[in-house]
TrEMBL record:
It catalyses: Hydrolysis of DNA containing ring-opened 7-methylguanine residues, releasing 2,6-diamino-4-hydroxy-5-(N-methyl)formamidopyrimidine. It comes from the Bacteria. This is Formamidopyrimidine-DNA glycosylase. It comes from Paenibacillus faecis. One of its GO terms (biological process) is base-excision repair. GO terms for molecular function: 8-oxo-7,8-dihydroguanine DNA N-glycosylase activity; class I DNA-(apurinic or apyrimidinic site) endonuclease activity; damaged DNA binding; zinc ion binding. Pfam families: Fapy_DNA_glyco, H2TH, zf-FPG_IleRS.
C-alpha cells in the first residue's frame, strides 16, 4: 500500500504538471470507485482546474478552482500514471482525467481505493480522525514521545495506527524500527526515553530518505520519470527475508504480528 513517501512523491511531481490546466475529459470505467453517480461526477469536473495538491497521510487532496476537493486513497495496489494516450501503460484504469489537450492522469488499481468529490467541509471531516503528520510542523520529539506514552502494544502497531501518526504503513514501520535498532514487536510502554528518541530520529531519517528517493512504487509516474520507485533498493529489512542484514550480517527474519507481516534483523534489533 502506498505510504507517505509514495504519496508525497506523487504530490510533488503532479504539482509540476497539472496545476491550472482545465479538465477537458473524464472517463469512468468503474463507478464504484466514486462517491457520486458517474454522470454527476463527470459534469462537476469538466472545465474545472486543480489549483493546489495537498497530501494528508496516505491521501491526496486535489483542490479545485470552485472550492471542492477530489480525495484520493489508493489503498492496496493503487497506482497513478500521467501521460498521453500513446504512452499509457497497458493496465486497467478505473478513472481517467484529461488536463488540457492530451495530458491524462490514469487512476490504476482503484478496486480497493477511491476517488471522491467532496466539499471542503466534507473532506475535512473525512480526514478528521488522522493523527499528526510525522514530518509536519506540529511534530517534534516531545509531541512524538507523548503520543507513544499514551499507547500500549507493539511499536509497529502504534506506528501504523493512522489515528496516532498519519502516513506510516507496513514497510516504513519496519524500516524505522530497524534504523532505531528495536524490533517491531517491542512494547512501546517498555521503551525508555532514549529509545523513544531513537525511534523519533529514525522516523525522520527514514521518511525523508525514502521520499527523496521517490518511494517504492513499481510504475514511473510519467514517461520520463526516473525518480519514482527509487526507494525499492533502499529498504534494509522490508521484503528482505533470508538476506543478510546490512548492519550485522544475520539473516533477516519474516514473521507476523497482529495479522501484519514483519521483517527484522535478530542480530541487531532487540525486543523490550
Amino acid at each position: 500500500m502506498p505510504e507517505l513517501p509514495e504519496m508525497e512523491n506523487y504530490r510533488i511531481q503532479l504539482s509540476k504538471h497539472i496545476l491550472d490546466l482545465k479538465i477537458s475529459n473524464v472517463v469512468v470505467n468503474r463507478e464504484k470507485s466514486l462517491n457520486l453517480p458517474q454522470g454527476s461526477f463527470i459534469e462537476e469536473l469538466l472545465g474545472r482546474q486543480v489549483i493546489f495538491i495537498e497530501r494528508r497521510a496516505k491521501h491526496l487532496l486535489f483542490h479545485l478552482d470552485n472550492g471542492r476537493r477530489l480525495l484520493l486513497h489508493l489503498m492496496l495496489g493503487g497506482l497513478l500514471y500521467l501521460g498521453s494516450g500513446e504512452d499509457r501503460p497497458e493496465r486497467n484504469t478505473q478513472v481517467e482525467i484529461t488536463f488540457g489537450d492530451d495530458l491524462t492522469l490514469y487512476f490504476i488499481g482503484l478496486r480497493l481505493g477511491y476517488l471522491h468529490l467532496l466539499s471542503a467541509k466534507e473532506a475535512e471531516e473525512a480526514l478528521s480522525h488522522l493523527g499528526p503528520e510525522p514530518l509536519g510542523r506540529k511534530m517534534n520529539e516531545a509531541v512524538f514521545a507523548e503520543l507513544l506514552r499514551k499507547r500500549r502494544g507493539s511499536l509497529k502497531t502504534v506506528l501504523v495506527n493512522q489515528e496516532v501518526i498519519a502516513g506510516i504503513g507496513n514497510c516504513y514501520a519496519d524500516e524505522i524500527a530497524f534504523a532505531a535498532g528495536i524490533r517491531p514487536s517491542a512494547k512501546v510502554q517498555n521503551l525508555s526515553e532514549t529509545e523513544i528518541s531513537a525511534v523519533y530520529k529514525a522516523m525522520l531519517e527514514v521518511l525523508t530518505e525514502m521520499t527523496e528517493a521517490g518511494g517504492y512504487m513499481e510504475l514511473p509516474l510519467t514517461k520520463n520519470d526516473t525518480l519514482t520507485g527509487g526507494a525499492n533498493e533502499l529498504c534494509r529489512v522490508y521484503d528482505r527475508e533470508g538476506e543478510n542484514c546490512p548492519r550485522c550480517g544475520d539473516a533477516i527474519v519474516k514473521t507476523e504480528l497482529n495479522g501484519r507481516k514483519v521483517f527484522y534483523s535478530p542480530g541487531c534489533q532487540y525486543d523490550r
